[in-house]
Recover the amino acids of this structure.
């Protein structure tokens, strides 16, 4: 992959998600809440997790940010619903290593679903934090769920 | 005579950069400007031929360095309509504003004795700032208030970002001890009414601090005529080096203020228990000074004066209007600050409907166009305007009409790209 | 492998200077060193190709600048045996020491809340310094004491200028909160016993501040091994640019300290009334940073590491011995600090019987030899030694044996000239 | 005059005065006392003036400093004894303009006596303060004498 074309960064599915924002809105009865802020630009997210029986039932979020951060949160809420905590952590790890790969890792579509469309971000280091915003909030939220 | 932009550009090596296969269009000069070769050369010549610590040495290099350092101070004084003793070198505008805030809080703790009494603050005293300040002209005053028990009071802005002078009249009063405000807003490009604000402050004997960071590169400044007590600026925003700034202060005030940073070269005598301090400006210049940077800044000011600050200002206003007019004509773009035709410097903050400023910046960067995104260190102003962030294009003497056109063309294509 | 001085000198343009019809013999490196072309080039390349404000921008130049700035921090961390988060950029050592002193006094006023409690000072608390400190490591502590009501206590030196460790044992005690001292004296060239002093401070939980200004250019520093809490240095004394310095602090300490300078780029969020601060190091880096200077300092450290700090240290010790041995052999010369054979860096302060140091400096300058005269910002030490002033010769990696010989020859002729 | 030779700065008579230090020592019964300090090097002088009938009877001083400052104080005490205040001021003005002349003014020997040997200092700007130290103290002291 190369930086040739900005569409490699803003893939169509990314732009779709940035508009659709799956999972937008807070949950009524969250098991854990976490808050993330992107220090370099002030973008914010509040993330709710509802978990039960060792499984993430659903994720809801609010906040504001760029297309990348919004799309990333949207994709995240699609992916993690129904996963166990361990599966969740595996996703997180794979997602992070994709973003840090500087274009070498296109992502594991089976695991990450639409979020592989964020692989282009790895060529834009200043934007990695945007893509990570929701995921770091998730990581933080998970620490507050026992089991 | 209008500026010869081609000739000017030839003197800025950074403008030859290409970014993402496009020629660089640098519209982030309000964050930091590019530097002409004469500035880089002045620094280098000093470092290669005269480098030595100033004021302390008897040897030839030290004498030369001292001479160059002090004549740079004179040069800046001339540029600003001040006396050399009124020019204190600092690491930048942020450092200069902190100098004031800490010196005042040292005075409030009794340092500086009787002469410093006029700077003492306590409960009941008020510091007034505006809602459009850069964080550098806000947080130091917040902290000063926290340290002394004084109260910080803001002058608000209206929905268009204009300073509310009706509020200013109410807020500035007999308890006001300091009034600090930006000459030019780094987000709106608007020029604040210095004379009116100074008049209000003078009525109550408040000290006036002018943040000239965004005016010094664009307007001809005469600080005596503006009649402010203090002013600050950063060299790197006006074609000069990083790491150098200026605090201007009226002489009798600087001489009465207690020191801020302490250390070498600012003392007359030092015992183990206590020290006696030199008069200003030396009193405020502790430790080894950024000599090469001061010399570089003097060269930048030479460069500006050779162009002529009147011409610079004229061109700058022209660019400001081109930006605001062009942006206003693009559907889905909202320009912050003064409307087309109203005075503004060559700087425009704007919002692209439905597209976050980070994405705006990324899109333009792909075209080689460098703009700033985010809150530009003016979070309260953004909050007041109901925004989390904005995009800012800002110009300098080297900005061409073609660059403005390329920028406007780019902005015009953003919403389609993001399907906004 | 010893240093190849000729090859080194070729990289310092300033050494080609002639002064008063003689080749420059620059023996004032302890005041400020000359800079190799790689340092000047690194700064210039940055300014010509990547110049932008860091951390705030999304455009390519800003990303490049941020990357270069942060990798320079990593470079300094590696040089000093620290982690990147433990390296705070400052305008210099003086600024770094003031940062500590003001952060502690802000903590003492309750800023920084509970985590900052360990930095709170008040009556009964003691700050300990030594009698041989540079003013930069003395006056900030005097002022901190004055602001907080803490007491400043000195560790004296003996007639030879040696730190009185017997006094240290008495002075450092349960009330000691901060112990601040120079690694290497800028007048005596002596290396202070860091391990013993740290051990004394540790016994009482006092914070240890090391002034590494005069050791960083000469010795291989491993701050973790030295086990100090804080250390400061100035770039311009170690082949780097003016206007840049480093504060090292143990991470958990820096993260608990309240800010010093406030303004842009050190906050997470800003309301009109108050602000929230980033963790260190960003918390302490308010405003536009001296990016080109940080990059230049990283280049200086590359240069030193390529020579090898072991080799640098060896050569430096050799020059120190050559100075002290040579000077001691001249009738009517008294060398301050360690006797021949005892450890010292390449620096020697001395007295010419019957000739004032200003006249000594003038005489040597006529021969193109640059030395420092006066109290070298260490007035209490001079007073203790019964002196008003001294002359100081100090070396660097570019100093030749022939230069030392020329210097000694010059010194040998001074008393006759002045009929002393 | 040129900087050619350091003897142009340190003329023999200057070196003589720096050793002899005429007027060294404070007066028993001074009319005015003043104190001077050279900020760049810390050199100090305390100067006593005894005046009567509009005439400076004598000057005494202590302090420490370089050969130039010591010689200058020594020469000063030779010159001003017996002068009226106005004459004193004239000396001071002529002395100062000689030092600021950058080698163009050799000094008025009739008025300044041995102090013309300090004319070489004008080519060494950082040393002008050394030569001025005693004279600025004198100037300050004179303001404290009425008449
Ligand atoms: C031992 C010591 N500490 C502190 C300083 C102050 O450094 P700077 O003037 O670069 O801030 C110096 C040099 O002047 C020094 O030699
Ligand atoms: C209006 C205004 N004030 C203050 C500052 C702070 O200047 P610096 O970051 O150079 O200290 C800036 C720029 O960042 C500014 O635009």
């Amino acid at each position: 992959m190369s930086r040739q074309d900005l569409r490699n960064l803003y893939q169509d599915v990314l732009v779709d998600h940035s508009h659709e924002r799956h999972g937008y809105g807070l949950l009524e009865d969250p098991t854990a809440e976490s808050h993330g802020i992107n220090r370099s630009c002030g973008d914010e997210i509040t993330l709710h997790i509802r978990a039960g029986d060792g499984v993430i039932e659903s994720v809801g979020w609010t906040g504001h940010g760029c297309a990348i951060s919004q799309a990333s949160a949207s994709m995240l809420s699609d992916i993690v619903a129904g996963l166990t905590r361990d599966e969740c952590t595996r996703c997180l790890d794979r997602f992070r290593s994709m973003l840090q790969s500087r274009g070498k890792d296109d992502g594991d579509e089976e695991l990450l679903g639409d979020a592989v469309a964020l692989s282009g971000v790895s060529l834009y280091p200043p934007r990695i934090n945007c893509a990570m915003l929701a995921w770091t909030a998730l990581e933080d939220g998970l620490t507050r769920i026992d089991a | 005579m209008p500026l010869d932009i081609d000739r000017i550009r030839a003197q800025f090596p950074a403008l030859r950069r290409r970014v993402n296969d496009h020629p660089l269009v640098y519209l982030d000069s309000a964050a930091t400007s590019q530097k002409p070769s004469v500035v880089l050369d002045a620094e280098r010549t000093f470092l290669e031929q005269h480098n030595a610590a100033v004021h302390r040495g008897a040897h030839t290099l030290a004498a030369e360095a001292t001479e160059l350092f002090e004549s740079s101070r004179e040069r800046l004084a001339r540029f600003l309509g001040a006396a050399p003793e009124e020019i204190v070198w600092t690491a930048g505008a942020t450092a200069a504003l902190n100098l004031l805030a800490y010196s005042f809080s040292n005075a409030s703790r009794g340092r500086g004795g009787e002469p410093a009494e006029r700077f003492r603050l306590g409960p009941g005293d008020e510091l007034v700032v505006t809602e459009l300040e850069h964080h550098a002209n806000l947080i130091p005053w917040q902290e000063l208030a926290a340290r002394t028990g004084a109260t910080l009071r803001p002058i608000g802005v209206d929905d268009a970002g204009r300073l509310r002078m009706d509020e200013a009249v109410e807020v500035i009063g007999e308890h006001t001890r300091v009034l600090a405000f930006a000459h030019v807003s780094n987000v709106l490009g608007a020029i604040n009414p210095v004379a009116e604000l100074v008049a209000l402050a003078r009525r109550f004997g408040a000290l006036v601090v002018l943040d000239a960071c965004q005016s010094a590169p664009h307007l001809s400044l005469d600080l005596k005529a503006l009649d402010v007590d203090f002013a600050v600026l950063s060299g790197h925003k006006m074609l000069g080096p990083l790491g150098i700034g200026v605090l201007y202060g009226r002489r009798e005030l600087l001489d009465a203020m207690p020191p801020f940073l302490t250390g070498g070269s600012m003392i007359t005598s030092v015992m183990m228990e206590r020290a006696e301090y030199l008069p200003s400006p030396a009193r405020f210049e502790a430790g080894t000074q950024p000599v090469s940077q001061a010399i570089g800044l003097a060269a930048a000011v030479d460069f500006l004066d050779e162009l002529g600050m009147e011409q610079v200002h004229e061109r700058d206003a022209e660019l400001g209007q081109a930006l605001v007019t062009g942006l206003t004509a693009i559907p889905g773009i909202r320009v912050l600050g003064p409307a087309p035709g109203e005075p503004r410097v060559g700087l425009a903050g704007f919002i692209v409907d439905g597209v976050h400023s980070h994405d705006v910046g990324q899109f333009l960067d792909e075209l080689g166009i460098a703009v700033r995104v985010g809150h530009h260190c003016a979070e309260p102003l953004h909050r007041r305007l109901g925004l989390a962030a904005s995009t800012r294009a800002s110009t300098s003497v080297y900005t061409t009409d073609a660059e403005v056109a390329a920028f406007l063309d780019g902005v015009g294509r953003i919403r389609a790209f993001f399907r906004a």
